[in-house]
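Quick note —
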Amino acid sequence: MNINFSSTSQIGARVSNQDTTGALLGDHHACFMVCDGVAGNAGGELAARIARDTLLAQLDGDRPFQPQNTATLVENTELAIRAAQRNNLNYSQMSTTLAALFIDRDALQAWWVHAGDSRVYHFRRGLIHAVTRDHSLAQQLQDAGYENTGINSNLLYNALGADVSHP
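Predicted structure written out below.
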């Protein structure tokens, strides 16, 4: 399986960009991710870097990683952000979104995980298909058939490091 990748990020209308990307490309496995620090609280950029670095540090592209281990990878990543929150009270509210794609290059299988409104898409034969749904109030309203015009699309109910509960 031949894999080529690149990443880019645009600041848009914001003052700062809290996006970070990460990749591990091994002979047998690969992982690609984007983390976007949640704005509104100090430390979003730091939370994104911690998430990226912690998740990638748990992986070895030459040793198998399996879908059933994904929850543990994310839990350990969450714990690293929580530890950083406790170590610096200025960042006690920092959080980040996550979208990560894992590929078993030998079995030709892929799986993903996400939190927040960073997304995973599937491109095939010129078509694009979203495989994740935003963890946001606006998305919940839309999914329930309600009008979501005027709703802040950045109100998340899931992000790494955030004190949130699933509705």
